[in-house]
Amino acid sequence: MKILYAIQGTGNGHITIAADLLPRLRQHAEVDVLLSGSHVEIALPCEIRYRLNGLGFVFGKKGGIDYVETYRRSRLKQLFNEISTLPVTDYDLVISDFEPVSAWACYLRGLPCIALSHQAAVISHHAPRPKRPDRIGLAVLRYYAPAKTRIGFHYQSYSKDIFTPIIRRQVRELQQDDKGHYTVYLPAFSDKRILRLLSSFPETRWEVFSKHTKQAYEEGNVAVRAISENAFLSSLATARGVLCGAGFQTPAEVLFLKKKLMVVPMKGQYEQQCNAVALQQMGVPVLKNLKPKRIPEIASWLSSEERVAVHFPDIADDITLQLLSMAGSGQEAPQPLPRRYGRFRDLVLKKVFYQTKSES
Question: What angle separates helix 76-85 from helix 100-109, to the nearest 10 degrees?
Fold first, then answer.
């Protein structure tokens, strides 16, 4: 059996899930790995067969995606070429963790593709969403990496095809302690903006992990470091609490470790807005932004000892078996690629990059 495991390279959460599942899949099948995008700091412990540009997003410094820079780096012609040449017909099973090249290559050829991701759970009507609808944001989640079959991960099992998070082995085996500091991971904010806010709490020790620096430095009570998996895990293991974005994997790991958690969802990012609603329903405090008026909310969180109780069992083996059972099921004869990508190009431009002008 041959499997193609395709991973989205924007953010580190997709990598951590794959690192846990890949060794288990390789006990039963030959697995090739595809990685597209370029915003990851965690290395996969295996060879990458396909390293593609894909269609990634670029983190900004003001709390959201930098759509202008994202568009500049998009290389749509290269993306269409990657989709047309990826040999998905060589595989018995294609798994896409919100990875667009593999998903669209299968979609355009009429081949099945399994969406295995947090995003697959977010688009379920069973999952929590903000009261104000965001049709464009939902469309991006649906069309960015389309798949009919979905296995989703969320903070709670909202339906039979939504599972609790896969917590990587390194986190499950962490030796924990409380050394009093707070770990910070807010990749969509500049160091300057973060430091300005955290300096309001001079009695608190902060350890900030930044996408925007390569050299470690300190300013008063704040230590800033470049992102490193080992350093981050070490800080996480001994932290009292964590202030981070409303992504998926980092909040899930913090909850698993029973640490205090506060999240700041990225603006204009529908997935994180949905995550913030789900976390808030569970009792996790949510900051709308990092403006000075949020200082009282952070102070209240720092003085609180409240933690959210969760149960995240190790489901990686169960997911592996479910994936293997899907190989070849419902396999259709591959269709020739359409000569033109007009419809797909329109979807990309209208549903993914529609905010470019408004954000610039």
Answer: 60
Q: pLDDT tens digits for 247-296?
A: 999 999 999 999 999 999 998 889 999 999 999 999 999 999 999 999 99
Residue spans per domain, the chain: 2-167+315-359, 170-303
Retrieve residue 91's tokens: 């595989």
What CATH number belongs to 170-303?
3.40.50.2000
Residue 247 CB contacts under 8 Å (≥ 6 apart), including other chains: 11, 13, 272, 275
Specify the DSSP element, H or E, that contains 277: helix 270-282
Residue-by-residue DSSP string for 21-75? HHHHHTTTSEEEEEEEEEE--S--SS--SEEE--S---B-SBSBB-HHHHHHT--
- Angle 127-121-54 (CA atoms, 0-180°, nearest 5)? 140
Distance of alpha carbon 92 from the chain centroid: 26
Between CA 263 and CA 247 the distance in angstroms is 9
Whether 2-167+315-359 and 170-303 share one fold: the answer is yes
Per CATH, domain 2-167+315-359 is 1.20.120: no
For 211-252, give the secondary structure using H, E and C: CCCCCCEEECCEEEEECCHHHHHHHHHHCCEEEEECCCHHHH
Tokens found for residue 50: 């396909």
At residue 60, the pLDDT reads: 54
**Euclidean distance between the first and the last CA atom of the chain, given in angstroms as a whole number:** 47
pTM for this entry: 0.86
24 contact partners, CB below 8 Å, separation of at least 6: 316, 317, 320
